[in-house]
Design brief:
It is a single chain. The protein is α/β, with parallel strands linked by helices. It has 14 helices and seven strands. Helices cover 47% and strands 13% of the residues. It has a seven-stranded parallel β-sheet. The radius of gyration is 19 Å and the shape is globular. The structure holds 5'-deoxyadenosine (5AD).
């Protein structure tokens, strides 16, 4: 157990600012002041699991379910590429009725038509499916461990096990995927020690991307009456991940905005370097409710405002803005 690190998770005030500036120096060393934007499309909200924290759980009958078609996904992918975004993330529940043949076709089409870097977050599929997706052109797979405590894991993800998820994460890495994992901060019963252990596990796994989201109680889930995760612990976790993991991508996720208007800006100050911009079609947004009915949507406009307020740079989005202004002037 690392008592010093554990106590840093509770830092506030001056101690927290010092921790953030140490983390920001590491961030600057590897990524300067650039924010790396990526675009997400939430391709299906079907899920056959019943995770206790998640509003997309199978038994939530209050949710209208959808599964996107390839042409609909492609038009959003092109929109993203037109804005200069270089990475596309396709996200869904554990929806195994989304056939692998269909997913393979989607990945191949995106690669051929846009050449975007492809990130998949499609749940714990079969190992052969992972191989198919990699061979089709996908680059990164996200499989969050959510909690390091196998007992808590079994309680909140009753149909799955920590060991199997970890095994699949290692498999993904071994076959050549870039991998991403991370934790929900503030699940009931979680300890600070396990969070520090989590950072070291991510280091051992050699993940390319690490993320944390503060827990947001969802009204249609069994954990609806629990307190949200502590935003400062989640922010300090970002800072410690940055210091310990060095050159990994760390997103400033929208769940931070749900707890505090400045939450995502603080995540950048703590060392995050990635911003995920939502390119899901508007009609689907209210149906993709992992966290809460009042979900925070980072659309392109909000993303630009955040980057502006963060005083960081985003040459990709910025160059597109300048290009468009130039075109307007000529016209
Ligand atoms: N609070 C915070 N994060 C959540 N996730 C799902 N439900 C919640 C919640 N209630 C996160 C998990 C999941 C990701 C898509 O969203 O980390 O992997």
């Amino acid at each position: 157990m690392n008592t010093t690190l554990t106590s840093k998770l509770a830092f506030l005030g001056n101690q927290q600012e010092t921790l953030f500036s140490e983390a920001f120096k590491v961030r600057q060393k590897y990524f300067g002041t650039e924010v790396y934007p990526r675009g997400v499309i939430e391709i299906s909200n079907h899920c056959l699991l019943n995770c206790h924290y998640c509003g997309m759980r199978k038994n939530n009958s209050n949710l209208k379910r959808y599964r996107m078609q390839v042409d609909e996904i492609m038009s959003q992918a092109h929109l993203m590429a037109d804005h200069g975004v270089k990475s596309i993330m396709l996200q869904s529940g554990d929806d195994y009725q989304f056939q692998i043949s269909e997913l393979k076709n989607i990945v191949k089409t995106i690669k051929t038509e846009t050449n975007l870097h492809i990130i998949l977050c499609l749940g714990e599929r079969k190992k052969t499916d992972f191989e198919t997706l990699l061979l089709s052109g996908a680059n990164m797979y996200i499989l969050k461990l959510e909690t390091m405590n196998p007992k808590l894991f079994a309680e909140v993800r009753p149909e799955t096990t920590f060991e199997r998820r970890l095994d699949k994460l290692k498999f993904l890495k071994n076959i050549g995927f870039e991998v991403s994992s991370g934790f929900i901060i503030g699940l009931p019963g979680q300890t600070l020690d396990e969070l520090i252990d989590g950072i070291y596990l991510l280091k051992e796994l050699g993940v390319e991307n690490a993320s944390v989201s503060p827990f947001i109680p969802n009204q249609d889930s069994p954990l609806n009456n629990y307190e949200p995760g502590n935003i400062n612990i989640a922010l300090n976790m970002i800072a410690l991940m940055r210091i310990i993991l060095g050159k990994v991508n760390i997103p400033s996720v929208s769940a931070f905005s749900m707890l505090n208007d400045e939450g995502q800006l603080r995540a950048f100050e703590a060392g995050a370097n990635v911003l995920t911009i939502n390119f899901s079609p508007l009609k689907n947004l209210e149906k993709y409710l992992i966290y809460d009915k009042k979900r925070a949507i980072v659309n392109l406009e909000y993303a630009k405002m955040l980057i502006k307020n963060s005083k960081l740079d985003c040459s990709i989005l910025q160059s597109k803005i300048t290009e468009r202004l130039a075109q307007t002037t000529i016209a």
